[in-house]
Amino acid sequence: MLTISFYGVRGSTPCSSPEIHRYGGNTSCVVLEGEDGDPIIFDLGTGLRPFGNDVGSAKPFHGTALLTHLHWDHVQGLPFFAPIHTAGSTLDVYGPCSDEACLSDAFGTFVNPPFFPVHFSDLIGDITFHDAMDCEFEIGPAKVMCRPVPHVGLTNGYRVDWGGRSIAYMSDHQEPFGQPNHVADGVLELADGVDVLIHDAQFTTSEYEARPDWGHCSIRYALEVAHQAKAKQLVLFHHDPTHHDEMIDDLLDEAQTIAAGLDIREVLAASEGLKLTLD
Ligand SMILES: [Zn+2]
Ligand SMILES: [Zn+2]
């Protein structure tokens, strides 16, 4: 059995208001837990903090994070993850590196004064960074595939196969302008026949048309990716900060109608606190 827990589902920036309380305002953080092996965390956005509260800091934590990219909404939660302040805790972080900076150099820049009071290496637990680009590796019983995903700057998507179940995670995905049916080969490889596809759903079609080079896609394109990859379930994720609860409800209704014509079995909108269990 695998459990997928959504702790942060918002894109771009954390936000808060009564109008978004049902879907939530923390940024990208999703946790996979199986019956054997340590947790695997997709992205280190501000949703990592409430996950840390659930874990607690009474005993050392061991886990792995698969980071899509270094934009603020995907990394800000790291120093606020309570278990990393417990002696003996370990966190392995995999993510993209550029020619200019490996992953540990990048974190050493922004988890460091003057951007943060201390350097990440001064946190009590041990964080180990692993550069990961277009590769496959194993984390305990889980097999991980990492492929580049079109966005702004180097960005990874991930597929995890664990206990006979499969999940693909691509939080930020640039829809190719003028090519609404083109999906990158690496993206299709990641999402091929997965049980659950967690995908960028930042924009409505008109928002995408107004911001075609902001690195994101329309919900219509997320459905196209799920359709072409034959994903069984699509989870709309990385909601725009301006999308309030009722708007997301309406967008989900519309997406479910379109999905019925595309052989996508189920479409959900991610919300904070949502748990999916795969038997
Ligand atoms: Zn993002
Ligand atoms: Zn981004």
Q: pLDDT average, as an integer?
A: 97
Distance between the termini: 4 Å
Ligands bound, unique: zinc ion
What class do helices, strands and sheet pairing give?
Answer: alpha/beta
Low-confidence stretches: none
Order of helices and strands: EEEHEEHEEEEEHEHHEHEE
CATH architecture: 4-Layer Sandwich
How large a portion of the residues is in β-strands, by DSSP E? 25-35%
Using the coordinates shown, work out and report the CATH topology. Answer: Metallo-beta-lactamase, Chain A
CATH top level assignment? Alpha Beta
The DSSP helix count reads 6
Q: Could you give the order of strands across the largest sheet?
A: 6-5-4-3-2-1-14
**Overall number of domains:** 1
CATH superfamily: Ribonuclease Z/Hydroxyacylglutathione hydrolase-like
If you had to describe this structure to a student in words, what would you say it looks like?
There is one protein chain. With 279 residues, this protein is of the alpha/beta class. It has one domain (2-278): Metallo-beta-lactamase, Chain A. 20% of the residues lie in helices and 27% in strands. It has a 7-stranded mixed β-sheet with strand order 6-5-4-3-2-1-14. A 7-stranded mixed β-sheet has the order 7-8-9-10-11-12-13. One zinc ion binds next to loops.
